[in-house]
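Morning F.,

Quick status update on the modeling queue. The single chain you submitted on Monday has been processed. Sequence for confirmation:
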Amino acid sequence: AVSYTDEYRPRTIVGQGWGVTNPLEGLQDQPLHSRTGRVNFDSIFRPSLINHFTLGVDRYWNPSITSTYGQGWDTKLGITGLPYDTGEFPSMSFTGGTNAPINISGSQYALLGSMRWTLNENLTWVKGRHFVKLGGTWLYETLNDEKQAGANGVFNFNNQTTSQPTSSSYASWGSPVASFLLGTLNTASET
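Structure tokens below.
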């Protein structure tokens, strides 16, 4: 018996809540594509001796890319020096304080692929009321991944840079939005 399936499942993953057409959203396009092929062969050597053979090939492709990919946002915003700039809108998070807003954008760029070869052989022998089954499986898998999550820059703004440093309420006062407007980062990274 020979079988083949080709499945395509496009989906869109909603990001931060800014609206699907807004570059601040971090919307991700993820068109999943999988292909599977099998060859099965059964041999009946005699009524009590049966052989089963399977050869299989699987290919799985799972890209996940933020919708602003390739739009040159780092250049438009004056952010330079990123070694692997994907042109996506940078990811920004706001933490601390009394009313931190929702985050801005996402930082996803991944082309994930894998291929698997499977070889399975087993022999079944029936002797009276007893069954003896012998066999083995060989698997070989290759991964073809390119991941650059955060390549467009990940910036975190917190409330402490605009809080009162000598106050007992230092951790809760201040505003991450004020820190953003002043350009005072808490952390920044690029992967």
